[in-house]
Sequence to fold (158 residues):
Amino acid sequence: MATLRLAGQGHESGGKAELWARERGLTEGVEFIGYVAGLDVPAFLAGLTVLAHPSRSESMAMALVEAIRAGVPVVAGKNSGGVPWVLDEGQSGVLVDINSPTELAGGILSLLDNDAERNALRQRAFNDLSERFGIDKIVRLYEEQYETALRRASADNR
Fold:
């Protein structure tokens, strides 16, 4: 049986989310972890099969980038700010309507139930992330910006 690990502020063991779930008999198979500090993120991610990221609004969604770098496939919101961009419009992760519990669960189960799909997505996402956000790409973008700034400054001084 899979375990649902709830991380993030408000999902601490003994916190409001756990108490709410306990009152409704919904704690079986659920682990309430709470906030995961920066240095603990790699170890946390290493224990995951899939990361579900049901945020309604994100700009860069670093949690998704960290998960993909750790080889964890992602299910996230198709209308959640920058999430579709980070996930290359669904090529690097499963995009769902996070306001639909059925759709969110379906996205998670589609990866849990299909090793081949999960592994293909893992590899595709990692390759895409490396190409779009890797150090070589970032250095090249910085160099282009500096060159543009120097050309403009040189032109302004003529």
Notes: Strands lie at 4-7, 30-34, 51-53, 74-77, 94-96.
